[in-house]
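Slide 14.
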Amino acid sequence: MKSQYVLPLTIVIAGALIAGAVFLAGKGSTPTPAGQNGQVTARAYDPKIDHILGNPDAKVKVIEYMDLECPHCKVFGATFDQLAAYYAPTGNVAFVARPFPLAQIHSKAPQEAQAAECAADQGGDSAYYKYIDGIFAITPSDNGLDLSQLPVVAQQIGLNVTTFNSCLSSGKFAKRIQDSYNEAINEGGQGTPYILIMVGTSAVALSGDQPYDSMRAAIDAVLSSAGVSATASTTTQ
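Slide 15: predicted structure.
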């Protein structure tokens, strides 16, 4: 059944973007060429390693591969949260952030990604996203964060700092972070943020810190293609 979405997703998403969405490709720190935007196959949501906002059974998943030192990820972080607040209550769309630290330009990003996993290890998905928001709130981006702030953010969101520090120093999640990086590359990512709007393992790929209205148009197009209601809050966003 998943294969039926491959061609329709590509056609519908292209139509939606051409028809009026403000589509800004390649705005990431290391931009993905415009030709990379389109249909890809990607790993489906896995509750054992992914952290989700919204209904785990939602038919459409929005995946962001992010680098916590990427200034464009910091900008898109606010859009990601706004989209999650709009769509997640419907149960039809859920949101997942995956690490994609570009260590070649942001040497601190892998450590920060591990710190976010340590937050989740102690406090679950909610702590993961609170921790990411905490990092984005204080980092100047482009490798500018003082890593001594990592446990400070953990304390601010209510984690046990001793447990957090032990997790971080152990390198417990180093392999997971590297695996996620490799996965993003294999799925077509060349810069951050790298965004996938997915049904099953079929995904429409977008590059850069896409504007809110553009993301709304893209998500609604995928929902329509998948035969799922786009019904959400009537509150103006």
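Speaker note: The longest strand covers residues 60-66.
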